[in-house]
Amino acid sequence: RYMELAGCLVDRRGDGSLGPGRFGSEYFQDHVAVREASTMAGHVVRQLYLTAGVADLYLETGEQALYDALMRQWSDMSEHHLFITGGVGSLHRGEAFGEPYVLPNESCYCETCAQIASVMWNWRMLLATGEAKYADLVELTLYNGFLSGVSLDGRGFFYVNPLQSTGADDNSGSTRSTRPEWFDCACCPPNVMRLIGSLGHYLATRDAQGLQVHQYAPSTVRFEAHSGQRTLLRIETEYPWQGAVKITIDETGDDPWQLSLRVPGWAEGASIHVNSQPCNAMAVPGAYVTLNRTWRVGDTVKLELPVASTLVLGHPRIESVRGCVAIQRGPIVYCLEQADQAPSVDVMDVEIEPTGQMRDSWQPDLLDGVISVQAEGYAVE
Fold this sequence. Notes:
The protein is of the alpha+beta class. The protein is built from 6 helices and 17 strands.
């Protein structure tokens, strides 16, 4: 009955029955039939919740038209509407997607709930395809677009997450410089708690062949292989600050099974060792490396991801970032702040030396412990 209801709701989209409303039928994704959709449009959270539901329906029915529509829309979002943080939502008006490549830094919306909805949809796309690019986007969004929406003590929240802030609130009604404890429309705080409470759900999956690890965090993973044998893995890592991921087999049976590990798209030069010996399996960025063997208790796998600071250049059609670069280290996109500059230097007048060195250092007393990046640059008049 639930699947029939979901199918009914999907089938009814696109006939204009919800009316134009204040922002037009696109606001409700009621302007085009789901199976004919090719772009992301309207209210961002509604759109992403809808695509997540459509993905669920596809996973149950296998209907090709639903899959094709999802692929078209995902390509549109990832190629035309995605901020470097994984954030989505350019417009305050209608809390909506904007035109392709219109990705403003200071006036963007990037609602916290939208990033959560993106994680939910990309998780389902990962289940449908097994392709690492969806897990990559989940990771990028979790560490950057989502975590910016909650304070360190978990008591303050951003509704919108601009990429640039002057420290002052604007006239849009959204607080930009501080994280309030609550909102009149309080969708984001409980949504944040729900995602944090369910993070373990996104770490790994299993199938008939074995186990797939999608996100790296200190954890234990218990699963029952297809043959019925019980297996227990222990994952040790300081990721994302460090790139070493160690997996130890603490319990397994005598039947062979397959372990698949995601190699992030940024991880050029990744390597993998089994029981301290180099592995023949290729660790290709943006794909899964698969190890198929008869595992024994005490076996170890070490995945080494080369976490290093790099400069990221924006797409040339994005007007707001022409002439700009961002610093990214592993999955973390870094923020340049006024607090780190000399008193006489305005952060808006800082330029980086593109050929200069970037140095990493552990700061135990900063933000409960982070790796900061120091780069060479200039204060420009």
